Amino acid sequence: DLSQNNNPEQTIQEYLLESADTKRRAAGECVGSIIAAADLLTETFRSGGKVLMCGNGGSAADCQHMATEFVSRLSKDFQRPGMPAIALTTDTSFLTAFSNDYEFEGIFERQVLALGNPGDALLGISTSGNSVNVVRAMEAAASASLRTVVLTGNGGSLAEMADVAIQVPSDDTQHIQESHLAIEHILCHLVERAVYSPNTEGSIKGSAQ
């Protein structure tokens, strides 16, 4: 609580610098996995597939945020058609009904099995890398022939389950989330331009060389 801190200025500066340092480490360690994830999502959209997204809490908000940017737009300086992306975190009637009638751990798994098709992709977000409902969604995606991307922190089992894992090098939930948001914006930027800019045949990596 900043109001009870004898030096709120120091608290503010330390927090912002720690957040920036997490992003600096991500810039050094996550570039390859971000490119691989952008390639996977680009291939999904180019082939007529859609992207499903799941996560809890702040990560649920990230799913809604990212889906909005794909379907609407990321920035006003790049106009393009909408891209099919669905946040599995926003249908309160389904989420409360399934949690009440069955179990909370299956809320994303059920939607993946109902809505996902071969050629689609699932993007899961979990700062711990261990969210049970995201783990079960990943398992369902694999069984339904969806390709998978996860955004996590240092630990957890999800990274080993996904086709591509972007692991922010931190154990601090807040700083992981802050880096996730920046990475999500980068993914939207790379993917929309790869899908809709001229002369973007091949991979993100290939087009950047």
Given helix and strand content, the structural type is alpha/beta
Q: Main sheet, how many strands, which sense, barrel?
A: 5 strands, parallel
Q: Number of DSSP helices?
A: 9
> What does the overall shape look like?
globular
| Strand and helix order | HHEHEHHEHEHEHH
Q: Which range best describes the helical content: under 10%, 10-25%, 25-40%, 40-55%, 55-70% or over 70%?
A: 55-70%
Integer average pLDDT: 93
What is the number of E strands? 5
Q: Widest sheet: strand order?
A: 2-1-3-4-5
**Oligomer, anyone?**
single chain
Distance between the termini: 47 Å
**In terms of per-residue confidence, which ranges show pLDDT below 50 for 5 or more consecutive residues?**
none
Beta-strand portion reads 5-15%
Structural commentary:
- The protein is of the alpha/beta class.
- It contains 9 helices and 5 strands; from the N terminus they run ααβαβααβαβαβαα.
- Strands 2-1-3-4-5 form a 5-stranded parallel beta sheet, with helices on both faces.
- The longest helix has 24 residues, at 173-196.
- The protein is globular and about 55 Å long.
- The mean pLDDT is 93.
Jot down its keywords.
about 210 residues, alpha/beta, globular, 5-stranded parallel beta sheet
Question: Topology, pairings included?
Answer:
Elements: H1 8-29, H2 31-46, E1 51-55, H3 58-71, E2 85-87, H4 92-101, H5 107-115, E3 121-125, H6 132-143, E4 147-152, H7 158-161, E5 164-167, H8 173-196, H9 204-208
Parallel strand pairs: 1-2, 1-3, 3-4, 4-5
Helix pairs in contact: 1-8, 2-8, 3-8, 5-6
